[in-house]
Each structure stands twice: as C-alpha cells, then as structure tokens.
Amino acid sequence: MDRIYELAQPKESKCIWLTSFGPNMVWGNQEPMWPIPPGALKSAATPRLESLSEPKRNLIGGLNRPAFVYSCGRESVILKVSPFAKQASATGRVDYLSNHKRPPTEFKEDRREHTFSCGRQSPIWNVTDPARKAAERERIESLARPKTPHREFLPAREIETKVSKAAMSSSATPRLEHLARPKSRPDGPFREPMWPVSKSARVATATPRQIELAKAKSVSDGYLPARTIEWPVSKAARKSVATPRTDELSRPIIRATMDHVQFNPDAFIVSEAAKKARCSARIEELSQPLQR
C-alpha cells in the first residue's frame, strides 16, 4: 500500500536556478511557450491551411436562428413568424385555450384589479366625488404642514467664505505689519554649560520652610506595613493544649442519614412549644417586606 501511495505522487521538478531548463511558464495567460520567429510571422499560408481554416458548412438549411437582443423595450425575436401563420385563423380549441382563467362564482373581490408596472395606472381604490369636493379642516391643514426647524437653528456654514472687495483692496496698518514679523531670537548657546558658583550661594543655609518642604512624605500615624506571608509560630502556641470546651466545639455534628430518617415517623414533627412560640419584635420587624 505504501508503494501505491509513493507511485501516486506527482513527479517533482529537479530544476533549480543553476540547472534551469526551458523558459519560466505561467499558466493561465495567452503568452506562447516559445517566442515566434519573424519568418513564421511573415510566411504565407499554404492552400491546405486555407482549406482547413474555412468554417464548417451549415447543413441545417434555412432554420438557422438570427441574432436577438435581450433587453427592455427592444426586439427579441427568437424565431421569425411566417406570413401564413400571421394570416391563419385560430381553431375553436385554440380560442378555448387562450381564454384566461376566471374566478369562481362565489369569489368576492375586495378591491379592483390593479397592475404593478412602471408607467402604468395602478389605483388601489377609487376616490369618491364627495371626498374630492370636501372642504379642508384646520386639523388636516396643520397635519399637512411640513415640520419646521427650531427657531434657534442655524444652517450649515459655507466652506468657503466670500471676501469682500474692501477687504481685498485694503492695506495693512503699521501695527499689523509689526505684529506679522516673526520673533527674532539670538543664536545660541546662550550660556556656557559650566559656570562658576558664587561664594554667597556656597555659604548659604536653607530656611526652615525649605527644610520642611524637602522632607519626604511620611506615612500616617498608626500605619502597619503588610504582614509577611509566612511568620514563625511561637513556642507557647506549639506547646498549648486545647481546653475541653474547644474539643467539644471541634467535634462534628453527627446526623442520622436519610436511610434511617425516612423510616422515623416522628422525624418532621413540630414540638408543642414551637407551635405556641411567639416571635420577638425584632424578628417581626425583619420579616416585613421592603417598601419600594
């Protein structure tokens, strides 16, 4: 089976850039595999090639269909109708088959027939004469008015602002020309990277306010740092003995399993004291629903 799979694999090309053979072919284009010599382009065809290049003769006769165009509003004739067929009269059977399908006698049409088509009349129902002559009411006129924009609405401003002729012919004042000049800055460097420190600056002492501002921000009073993840257990805690009360509280509650409780008839009996008990004022207050 492995041999069959091995033989089914296509043959791989051993061509590399150093030992390439033939031109580089790209499938799917109209370029020839080999360049056509100029002599073949200028040669004349032999009589045999001319006879082979002739199309096959139409043996069907005069039944060849003419070309037609599929488009809206243009002639699209597939077969020409003979003049005898245009002058012939239809038989009774053809007249019967050409009749359209009529609805049953019990059919009641809700509205008149209309045709959904471009450029054709398509009324759904007729408007009565009283409706056409009816006077308009104030309510209908108010509903027919288009919605007006807000009184403070401003339309979109034009992208290009028209400059007036006075602004185009005006000349700038000396003040505007002075303000339009770029700021002049001297060429640097403005001072040496190293400069001597004066004696007064070396002997100066900081004021109490500067010392106060130079202090780092301290933590608040009572701040405790984060406790370490592991801490040593004291010897007293390791040698301590639990009290009888602690032993009693550490014992798990042992309840009977459901296999035994289901056979106990008194398992879910409410005691008489519980029946006569009264809830405290606090429990009654907590039992009231929230008023939202």
Structural commentary:
By secondary structure, this protein is mostly helical. Helices cover about 30% and strands about 0% of the residues. It is extended. The two termini are about 80 Å apart. The relative contact order is 0.02.
Give me the count of strands: 0
If you compute it from the alpha carbons, what radius of gyration comes out, rounded to the nearest whole angstrom? Answer: 54 Å
Main beta sheet:
none
How are helices and strands ordered from N to C? Answer: HHHHHHHHHHHHHHHH
Shape summary: extended
Strand percentage lies at: under 5%
**Alpha-beta content class:** mainly alpha
Task: Assign a percent range to the helix content.
Answer: 25-40%
**Termini, distance in Å?**
80 Å
pLDDT below 50 for ≥5 consecutive residues: which ranges? 63-71
Individual helix count: 16
Mean pLDDT: 80
